[in-house]
Amino acid sequence: MIHYLVMSIIFSLAQINSFPLFRLEGKKLISGEKTLIEVDTGEIFLSPDFTMAAVYDKGRGEVAIINSSKGEVLRTRALNPVVKFDDEGNFGIVEPNILRLRVFTKEGDLILD
Description:
globular; 11 strands; mainly beta
């Protein structure tokens, strides 16, 4: 019985950490030991659980949302945005200059514009 319990805990932990979490080093988004994106002008936002990132490229005027397990889930135009994530991975893109808020699910589906 104890063996079964220990094995189920190990299996659960392996599933939770099956994808490397994101981290920031300056203006670089890193997953595991690999640099995914480096921005010269713009900003990178991370979700609270470090499994999603929003990369704002000021030169292109775009935000790319990247999920650690699925890759890029959304690319949209934005002007000087602030990106906020909730605990479930859903996110909002706020553009303060033009008073615009867009809210998306973690899969990239638009909920509110």
